[in-house]
Write a structure and sequence with these properties.
- The chain is mostly beta strands.
- The chain has strands spanning 2-7, 10-15, 19-22, 33-36, 39-43, 48-50, 59-69, 73-79, 84-90, 93-103.
- The strands form three sheets. A four-stranded antiparallel beta sheet has the order 2-1-5-6, with no helix packed on it.
- A hairpin with a 4-residue loop joins strand 8 and strand 9.
- The termini are close together.
Length: 104
């Protein structure tokens, strides 16, 4: 059984017991249960249910394992022979969610 859900503007294909990283879930602490109701599709052994755009009554329950940051991404701007160099750094926040239950 798997589900396709939308969280943080992105879509993920998940199954029960699986952990995945997504955009930072604000106002949530580690170990807290999160209910995601933006479920696009659910596939079990027998049939496939597709919403338009979301399935009514379908939800995914997940536990927030940790909030963290990805590795540093370095951006370099350079113009040759002009003496122009710029270096910028960025570390994006993420939330690690573990799927507990999929309800269709």
């Amino acid at each position: 059984m798997y589900a396709i859900l939308e969280i943080g503007g992105k879509q993920y294909k998940i199954s029960e017991g699986e952990a995945f990283k997504t955009e930072l879930v604000k106002n949530a602490k580690e170990g807290e249960q999160i209910v995601i109701d933006k479920v696009l599709a659910v596939k079990n052994d027998k049939d496939l249910k597709i919403g338009s755009p979301y399935l009514e009554g379908a939800k995914v329950t997940a536990t927030l394992v940790e909030n963290g940051r990805y590795k540093k991404v370095i951006t370099v701007k350079f113009r040759r022979r002009k003496g122009y160099r710029r270096v910028k750094n960025h570390r994006q926040w993420y939330s690690l969610l573990k799927v507990e239950k999929i309800e269709a």
